[in-house]
Amino acid sequence: MSLLSITQLKVHFPTQDGIVKAVNTIDLEIANNERLGLIGETGCGKTVLGMSIIRLLPPSTTIEGEIRYKGNDLLKLTEKEIRKIRGKEIAMILQNPTTSLNPVLKVGDQIAEAIKLHQGLDRRAAKAKAVEMLEAVKIPDATKRANEYPHQFSGGMKERAMIAMGLACDPAMIIADEPTKGLDVTVKKQIVKLMKEVTTQKTMLFITHDLGVAAEICDNITVMYAGELMEYANTEAIFKNPMHPYTQGFLNSLPSMGLKAIKGMSPSLIDLPSGCRFHPRCDFADAKCRTEHPELIEVEKSHYARCFQYA
Amino acid sequence: MKQRSDSRFISFVAQFKQNRAALAGATIVLLLVFVTLFAPQLSPHDPIKACLDERLTAPCMEYPFGTDQLGRCIFSRVLYGSRVSLSVGLIVVGIAATIGVVLGIISGYCGGVPDEIIMRLVDAMLAFPSLFLALAIAGILGAGFINVILAITVVEWTRYARVMRGSILSVKENYYVEAAKSLGASDFYIVTRHIVPNAITPIIVVATLGIATVILAAASLGFLGFGVQPPTPEWGMMLNDGRLFMRRAPWLMIFPGLAIMITILAFNLLGDGLRDAWDPRLRERRRER
User: Fold this and answer.
1) Among partner residues A88, A147, A149, which is closest to B184 by beta-carbon distance?
2) How many domains does chain A fold into?
3) Which among A68, A246, B105, B242 could bridge B253 via Cys, Cβ 3.0 to 4.6 Å?
4) CATH code at position A87
5) Is this structure's pTM higher than 0.90?
6) Which residues of B touch A102 (CB under 8 A)?
7) What's the total number of domains in chain B?
């Protein structure tokens, strides 16, 4: 049975320029101990999807649909109930390690916070646990480091501390939002390795625009474009047999594949294209693509794509 | 390692030390505090004891600042007067900053309706010229120490509310606030532990500068007769008393006037110095200009 199942999820924000349709009718299942990669360009709604799971979006957002975690609809919980889910059941590791740590709190104390909150440990026990967590994410000299402030940490160490914070209460599920963003290549490699190690027994939604990183970590990958899922398959199938023209374009744009950019710009989420969302940039688009909206269909076993080529 | 972990504080102190004006301000403020605490020991005479034989004596060895129309020692009165000024300054700023900070937090963090209500109230308060409002309130309540404090507090809290709100608005957008939320922290916890410690610095600067404003306002009320009542020595009231003898005995006005000026200058220098030390970029910018 799946740990988290999202059905018919729509997330819209009202803004001065119009309604931003960040997530449009998404269905997604994440099984226990599955590591699912959510891939897409900047601004396709992937972070919003991640944040909507633990309801971190501003109150003006309209959310429709269901997000069931262990059978309970998270969207129907009260504020107090969802706070008990956050961090304890589902933890989020945010992007921007440099700004995700409070500059006036010692790193160890920040990690200890979540532990105190959910496990009812006292200050000293929580701090000891925090040091343990820093050790778990391979920060050398953890006892000393726990008493330092974030500005004394390097970028990679801050990211490690963020991961330690996310894992502190041993959550069943982790939503990692571009944990490798802004890190240089060697540090990125270490973080990827660490993420892989610490999540072996966990369920994870791994949000990234970095296909290489996703390939390293994830069991399955789903590709998001303009608030919709375009393709879903296991990692190998995505790389060996990408079905959707967008996925193909995305793979071709990798440096190792020759850096061929997809033409055009990603669409505005306020004014979405008619028909298939990708048709203005698609080499295979025909009249049908412009007017009719394709459904996500199972083309091969467990390999889904949203394209009329396979209809 | 210890050194590194305190590097922010050290750079703050280093910045502050370089600023001579701020150091002078800090020294005078410390001196004032000393004078206030030890006024009885430092005063050569009883500040309220009239000695009609010696009235309107020019400054001399016996009376360094001269005597007033009742023969009271002006030096002793100026020393004692610092008690009223400084305590009004500290008490008003303490109360006003507390009220302002709390309302500013509510306004900035909650937003929406509470924000509208509080900020419109602030706007309404700011629409009055502040001294006139304080004067009106003091007029209604009557003169006296407590009433002066009330009257000035009513007009002073607004600046703290505004500054705190602005500060909160910028701090609450930080990712660590979201990170804390994503780990299940409550609003109260986030505000007290994450937001306020990062947002409070400007308040310290505003409060230091605010003490100067309050002392001036208190002296103005005293001058107009709404302040502390005689015989308690108070700088503003001394100025008013001296007005009649301005030509014959200018020292009646010169010394309390100087006391007010130096006090306000000292707090302003200190406040500016604190601000520059906390935000070196600001100083660079000003220097370029």
Assistant:
1) A88
2) 1
3) B242
4) 3.40.50.300
5) no
6) 174, 176, 180, 194, 197-198
7) 1
Judged against a pLDDT cut of 90, whether residue B104 lies above it is answered with yes
**B-contacting residues in A 85-144 (Cβ below 8 Å):** 85-88, 91-92, 94-96, 99-105, 110, 113-114, 117-118, 144
Residues A239 and B253: their CA atoms lie apart, in Å, by: 88
Q: CA of A107: how far to CAs of A31, A161, A289, in Å?
A: 33, 7, 52
Residues of B in contact with A87 (CB under 8 A): 182-184
Flag whether residue A46 sits within 8 Å of chain B, measured between CB atoms.
no
In a domain, A133, yes or no: no
- Cis before residue B114, ω within 30 degrees of 0? no
Token code pair at residue A78: 């009260």
| Residue A260: Cβ-neighbour burial (10 angstroms; 0-12, 13-18, 19+) | exposed
Any domain includes B264:
yes
For chain B, give the longest Cα–Cα distance. 78
Identify which of B1, B182, B194 has the shortest CB distance to residue A94.
B182
* Cβ contacts of B289 within 8 Å, gap of 6 or more: none
Residue A134 resides in a domain: no
What is the average pLDDT value for chain B, to the nearest integer?
86
Read off the amino acid at residue A68. Answer: R
Residue-wise pLDDT for B173-190, tens only, equals 888 888 888 888 888 889
Domain residues for the domain of A217 are 2-101+153-310
- Among A85, A117, A152, select the one facing B4 at the smallest CB separation: A152
- Residue B71: inside a domain, yes or no? no
Whether B48 maps to a domain, the answer reads no
pLDDT digits (tens, 9 = 90+) for A219-228: 999 999 998 9
CATH code of the domain in which B147 resides: 1.10.3720.10
A111 belongs to a structural domain: no
Average pLDDT value for residue range B239-249: 86
In a domain, B288, yes or no: no
Residue among B174, B184, B197 minimizing CB distance to A86: B184
Domain-embedded: residue A143: no
Determine the structural domain holding residue B182 and report its residue range: 20-36+76-282
The CA-based dihedral angle spanning residues A238, A156, A104, B187, taken in that order and rounded to the nearest 10 degrees: 10
Mean pLDDT for the stretch of residues A227-253: 90
SS (H, E, C) B17-44: HHCHHHHHHHHHHHHHHHHHHCHHHHCC
Which structure tokens are listed for A260? 């061929």
